[in-house]
Design goal:
The protein is α/β, with parallel strands linked by helices. It has a single domain, classed as Cytidine Deaminase, domain 2. The chain is 37% helix and 14% strand. It contains 7 helices and 5 strands, in the order ααββαβαβααβα. It has a 5-stranded mixed β-sheet, sandwiched between helices. α4 links the parallel β3 and β4. α2 packs parallel to α7. The chain is globular.
Length: 194
């Protein structure tokens, strides 16, 4: 007889809530990115997931809406990239599937690495109006991650839909986290290259 789970559930790392409480709203994109990169480092150090983190903020105030980290390996789900977790948490918290809906604050997604092919697609429909990322896809690929195929002009695609993109914010710090993950034997999952 056929049976499948009746609901989808994933658990966030225990440290995530207390770490989120350390954030002080800032108008500085660099400060918001440092907070996100700090979460990616904590995720590696705690062994709770991959070397990636992302957060949704209110663009105008710098208020934190949600913080997500990569949970693919620890929660056994290929969709639990940091961006996907952050977007899902923000939508649940605000009770809206469209973070750019009428009457809502303008939201941005700040992520420790350039979005992969899956996260690129999610960003298109999330409703965020700004994407800021740190490490580039080639930085993640350098330690073995497969970022998947994106349109060559992916930034132009986002901007044509009203999503402004800022790249390379605090890149060196994000790359240090990727290298830490590689040095400590972090699991490289779902690579289909070669």
């Amino acid at each position: 007889m056929f049976h499948q789970p009746s609901h989808i559930h994933f658990a966030l790392p225990e440290w995530l809530e207390s770490y989120s409480g350390t954030y002080k709203p800032s108008s500085s994109l660099e400060e918001r990115m440092k907070f996100v990169i700090g979460a990616s480092r904590k995720n590696v150090e705690e062994g709770s997931g991959g070397p990636f983190a992302a957060a949704v903020f209110e663009s105008g105030t710098g208020e934190l809406v949600s913080l997500g980290v990569n949970l693919v390996f620890t929660q056994t789900s290929s969709i639990l990239h940091a961006e996907m977790v952050a977007i899902a948490l923000a939508q649940m918290k605000l009770g809206a599937y469209d973070l750019g809906g009428s009457g809502m604050a303008v939201h941005e997604l700040v992520t420790s690495a350039e979005p992969c092919a899956m996260c690129f697609g999610a960003i298109l429909w999330s409703g965020v109006r700004h994407l800021a990322y740190s490490a580039f896809s080639e930085d993640a690929a350098a330690i073995g991650f497969d970022e998947g195929p994106k349109p060559e002009n992916w930034i132009e695609e986002l901007e044509s839909r009203g999503i402004h993109v800022t790249s390379g914010v605090e890149r060196e710090a994000a790359c240090e986290v990727l290298q830490l993950y590689a040095r400590t034997g972090g699991h490289i999952y779902n690579s289909r290259k070669g």
